[in-house]
Amino acid sequence: MKFGGTSVATAERWQTIGKLAASRRAEGVRVLVVVSALAGVTDALKALSAEMDGGKRKHAAAAIAERHHALAIDMGIELPARVAERLESLAHLAADGPAAGQELAWQAQVQAHGELLSSAMGAAFLSAQHLPTTWVDSRDCLKAVALPNQNERTRLLSAMVEATPDAALQARLAGQGEVFIAQGFIARDDAERTVLLGRGGSDTSAAYFGALLKAARVEIWTDVAGMFSANPRQVPGARLLKRLDYLEAQEIASTGAKVLHPRCLSPLREPRVPLLIKDTNRPELDGTEIGPHLREAVTSVKAISTRKGITLVSMESVGMWQQVGFLSDVFNQFTKHGLSVDLIGSAETNVTVSLDPTENLLDSDAVAALAADLAKVCRVKVIAPCAAVTLVGRGMRSMLHELSSVLAEFGQLRVHLISQSSNNLNLTFVVDEDVVDELLPRLHELLLRSGSLRSDDDVQFGPTWQALYGRGEAQMVPGWWRGERQRLMNLAAERSPRYVYHLPTILERARSLKTLDAVDQCYYAVKANTHPQILKALAAEGLGLESVSPGELQAIDQAVPADTPRLFTPNFARREDYVTALATSASVTLDALHPIEQWGEVFAGHAIMLRVDLGRGLGHHEKVRTGGSSSKFGLPIEHLGRFIECAERHNVRIKGLHAHLGSGILDAAHWGEVYGQLAALADRIGSVEILNIGGGLGVPSHPGEQPLDMIELNRVLSEVKATYPQYKLWMEPGRYLVAESGVLLSRVTQLKAKGEVRYLGTDAGMHNLIRPALYDAWHEIVNLSRLDDAGTTLYQVVGPICESGDVLGNDRRLPETHEGDVMLIAQAGAYGAVMASHYNLRDAADEIVIE
Ligand code: LLP
């Protein structure tokens, strides 16, 4: 168990250490505690060892002595004899200063006192607390090895230890007690000199001890529960990483996470000793467990990290095309300047490498000197400051197809270098430094939404940082169906597959839309779900209904009172469809020149809405983005003049403007922007009274995704309304109202194992719910028959359709499932039944509304 500087600085903290060590003792294992120096003491010792003035050094040593006297009082113990001895030796070292030629060895000796002191304090305190604790001198256990690439400085101040399991040491300690305390950061070399382990030293010591003793595990106790899927200071929604294998953890540690020094993982890999990171203040929280983890795991991106201060050096060979030895010529220059290269990209005549500031002392002199030497063998360009953005996960290459939305984000930036690590664990993009702060949260969000960061897998991912340490968060509300299990089981027993819609959930959403003060009329986009009972209920709540075809108009007519306001917003519809719609009370929307240019007489004397293309699309998948020239929707702004001319010619009044940019948007700011743009356009036209800012209000589907903030949306809309009070505001959401209300029930038909893959077949398939196949959409899937059992097995959940794409859920962790079990697919109320097909002549799922 390793504890850092703040954890050992007060008696209260030592009490915690005692409790934790005792709890491990109670599990029947022996405990070795490894400690750092009291917080601030290592820095004080460093300053002391850099001080030339003997008087000041003595003064500094006295201040350190004072800290330990005060701690003894705080602990309620006499100053332990071992501490008194150490303080005396420190005072001597400070008074004497280094002997000529011995500066580095003296520095190491001075700095080693921090841990020697803190561990001696701890041994005395814990023993006094009825936890007899044996003090161990780490230098008697950890032997530094001299490596060929080390110089005297690194040998003394940044030493390496060869840690292979040591049976003799295990036996020696076993004879000495049950609880031990030793120092982090220090070791001894062949010449019997005290040496230091350099940065991350105490974690590394703990790992060395773990390996030497072949420990059951190494626990690093710190101020946070573990590693997260992104830097939580920038991404509060970052998830705790509960399980990582050594290489993944090492990759995350070396590309950004500060919680663990990357160096402390390699000693543990060979002896397969697991390492656990835990929060000292919240020991009840799961931490990050790093180990061999042979159990099956969902393939997933684990983390995204950014590193700033990266310098790129691009080297173009001049007239040396394919010349043998070019690489060795240029790399020799890096060796000569002592610079360590991180990423490499190469082309036939160019090599570009990155230099990482954490590995190098990258002042501008160093880079300039390197560039000057390189210029002798090639054309050099230095690109800085850059930042490296790294995605980490085992098997990155097999995940590329899931990363398209993430990659698209980079498509909008200047990417200087892309590198894929040869161990298949990371994918790195080097971009300009100034874009990364804003980029990181967006990329993390996209990783969640694309399902490439499998936050649903609670074996690997824990809660968000915000849930653990923030001011709480808007949690995804548990599905209504959890409370209706028996009723749903009965419904599934009667018939499957079957859609069930929960009316109270729909009404709740309708009421939350009513909190949008700026909206004058809300329409429900019936394309999401045309069930008559749902149309009735929403009309009764005061919503209008939006349709896109004569069929939908008819469904509306049959379901709701004649005075329910309605819209007709088709796209590439037939001439006669408009004729039909104009004969009803619906507000008709045009979104092209063709109808008004070619069939202007049809619209003569009518007032219409005009849907415009604002030039960009948004939404959960490229197939649901409806803006820009690659999308077929809306009148391009450059046709506006011609449209107005035709309208005037045919006595058609443009009473409103409309825009809808896509579906599944979770950012409240979006509708404010559309509203503002439409209002500005309306001012140019003159006749406009109404602005319809579309639908697209999203519903989070992945665990950890933040729901749309309705309070913020209300604020954003009210702000625009205050600027343009002359226009009425309409909206037309579909998904938001019905998605969560619906579940698709099905029954398990067959199970199959094929190599590593376990298939779970259900009687529902892509003919009932096409969203997973069409958009890679994520729907939560549970085994309703075994709702309370733990998920143990990874399944491909598939349907009966003769298509390989008939997959409803990929790699879902579910309880061991059997034929006849009832499966529930959640959030299937929007674009589920309405998009069903008769493919393979399979029956449609029937639909039931429950109150
Ligand atoms: N208004 C217009 C003009 C639309 O085209 C749509 C949806 C909506 C409103 C309602 O959008 P919502 O609020 O439901 O996002 N099948 C896809 C969604 C396609 C949406 C088509 N238009 C899916 O399952 O995700």
Structure report:
- With 851 residues, the chain is of the alpha/beta class.
- The protein has four domains: 2-216, Acetylglutamate kinase-like (Carbamate kinase, 3-Layer(aba) Sandwich), CATH 3.40.1160.10; 303-453, VC0802-like (2-Layer Sandwich), CATH 3.30.2130; 570-731, Alpha-Beta Barrel (TIM Barrel); 739-850, Lyase, Ornithine Decarboxylase, Chain A, domain 1 (Beta Barrel), CATH 2.40.37.10.
- Helix content is 34%, strand content 22%.
- It contains 27 helices and 37 strands.
- The strands form seven sheets. An eight-stranded mixed β-sheet has the order 3-6-2-1-9-12-13-11. Strands 21, 31, 32, 33, 34, 35, 36 and 37 form an eight-stranded mixed β-sheet that branches. Strands 22-23-24-25-26-28-29-30 form an eight-stranded parallel β-barrel, surrounded by five helices.
- The two termini are 55 Å apart.
- The protein binds ligand LLP.
- Ligand LLP is lined by residues 525, 527-528, 569, 624, 660, 663-664, 694-697, 732-736, 771, 775, 830-831.
